Amino acid sequence: MKAFKIVRGDITTIKADAIVNAANTTLLGGGGVDGAIHRAAGPELLAECRTLNGCPTGEAKITKGYRLPAKFVIHTPGPVWQGGSHNEAELLKNSYENSLRLAETYKCRTVAFPSISTGVYHFPLDQAASIAVRAIHTFLEQADHVELVLMVCFDDMTKRYYEKAESEYRSL
Ligand code: AR6
């Protein structure tokens, strides 16, 4: 039975086949969840990331998880919010879809996401949550390998927005 679950927690502690990193286009680390993932994975993660030559916004690249409990890290740079007329919604959807496609390719059964672009990149949480929830459900319906997707929210406010987006999606 496939499932989407919204939980509160620290994604670096999640024992999924893959966790997703809200990265930047250099893939060379940063603050927020990116910094936390690199700290927990150890320097081998940065060494592998250096070989990837960055990643365009909305696309995704995969590495091993090193010292993390997760087997893989899928790195995706979400869009920086610039007011909404710079294709931000499409690019955010692409980040979720391309991350899930990569998880399928690597036969991952469980995938954990952070709330991409809603920290330093300032994407409005209500819009980001509804884009994420829709993209994840649409993907799950036709997935062959991915069967559990977790949205790991770092704080209660973020979790409430995803729960609201999920209940709105369910009531459609
Ligand atoms: N587990 C889960 N979620 C977390 C964690 C954690 N350990 N730590 C923070 N969050 P952000 P962005 C939440 O800023 O907006 C980096 O410098 C956080 O509270 O990490 O996509 C990159 O290198 C928020 O809800 O990512 C980029 O330059 C969410 O993760 C830039 O930030 C995303 O916040 C990307 O910005």
Could you walk me through the main structural features you see in this protein, from its secondary elements to its overall organization?
The protein has 5 helices and 6 strands; from the N terminus they run ββααββαβαβα. The two termini are 21 Å apart. It has a 6-stranded mixed β-sheet, with helices on both faces. The protein has helices at 32-41, 43-50, 88-105, 125-141, 156-170, and strands at residues 3-8, 18-23, 61-64, 72-77, 110-113, 148-153. The protein is of the alpha/beta class and 172 residues long. The chain has a single domain, classed as Leucine Aminopeptidase, subunit E, domain 1, CATH 3.40.220.10. Helix 3 runs parallel beside helix 4 (125-141) and helix 4 (125-141) packs across helix 5. Helices cover 40% and strands 19% of the residues. The mean pLDDT is 98. Ligand AR6 binds next to strand 2 and helix 1.
Major sheet summary line: 6 strands, mixed
Q: Beta-strand level of the residues, as a percent range?
A: 15-25%
CATH homologous superfamily grouping: Leucine Aminopeptidase, subunit E, domain 1
Order of helices and strands: EEHHEEHEHEH
Strand order of the largest sheet: 1-6-5-2-4-3
Helix content: 25-40%
Mean pLDDT: 98
Number of domains: 1
Small ligands present: ligand AR6
Radius of gyration: 15 Å
SS summary, helix count? 5
Examine the secondary-structure arrangement and name the CATH architecture: 3-Layer(aba) Sandwich
Instruction: Specify the overall morphology.
Output: globular
At the fold tier of CATH, the topology name is Leucine Aminopeptidase, subunit E, domain 1
End-to-end C-alpha gap: 21 Å
Number of strands: 6
- Report the structural category: alpha/beta
Q: Which CATH top level class fits?
A: Alpha Beta
**Any low-confidence stretches, pLDDT <50, length ≥5?**
none
